[in-house]
Specification:
2 domains, Alpha-Beta Plaits, Rossmann fold, three-stranded parallel beta sheet, 16% strand, 7 strands, alpha/beta, four-stranded antiparallel beta sheet
Amino acid sequence: MAEMLNAYFRVQGYDVFTVNWGEDGVRSSQTVHPDLVILDIRLPDIDGYEVARRLRADRHTADIPIIFLTEKRDRADRLQGLELGADDYITKPFDVQELRLRVRNSLKRVSQGSLTNAVTGLPEGPVVDEKLAEVLGREGQAILLVSIENMDAFREVYGFVASDDVLRAISLMVVNTMRETGLPDDFLGQLHGTDFILIVSSANMKALSEKLGSRLEQSMEYFYPIKDRDQVTGQKDFLKSKLAELVISAGQFSEPDEVKAELVRLKNR
């Protein structure tokens, strides 16, 4: 597998080196400082989780994107990889073209300094935090969190390319709804991979939330192939949207992380 990926990515114009042991992977990352690491979980010595843990713990390697590529398909394994800060988790067998796109997107995200999402092009990271900080002390501002759930299950069946297409389509739907209902100063960003954050006037919040929620609910089944729609609609892992509304009052929050935590609480209640 390593030899195949080495040959494939070299043809794509990348400089590639491989190691077979986890300890060697940690040492090589510290000395060579690669732009990206593709990591298996089953290794002869320490496992891939431990490799990722050590890379994230070292300030010299903490920001290197990590893509897990492994036969471990269980949800618990995938969550463990993502909790360690992996950028992606791909299971075998896999489509090498999809892997190439994930590598490209991860490297693009790094080159842009995580200011915009590589899939949707929406602002994220520091830009979102800066915008949240601006509205903390203002009256009349509201925040709408739009969360797309069960994307992992969708991605596992239909692949990364299809899931990226879904996120782009949803981002465009949000943009168009904001144009119809919102104001020129409204802000749209990406909080996490499947969470969108809208900062709008509190006077427009209700109308925007209702219209957007209705459109998203009606659209979800169309993201599935026609042959699968009757079978998947209504299943517990079917794509669905969840919205959380938060009206900001002066002095309610002191920093952006408090706002994010409250949005997550409202979404999950």
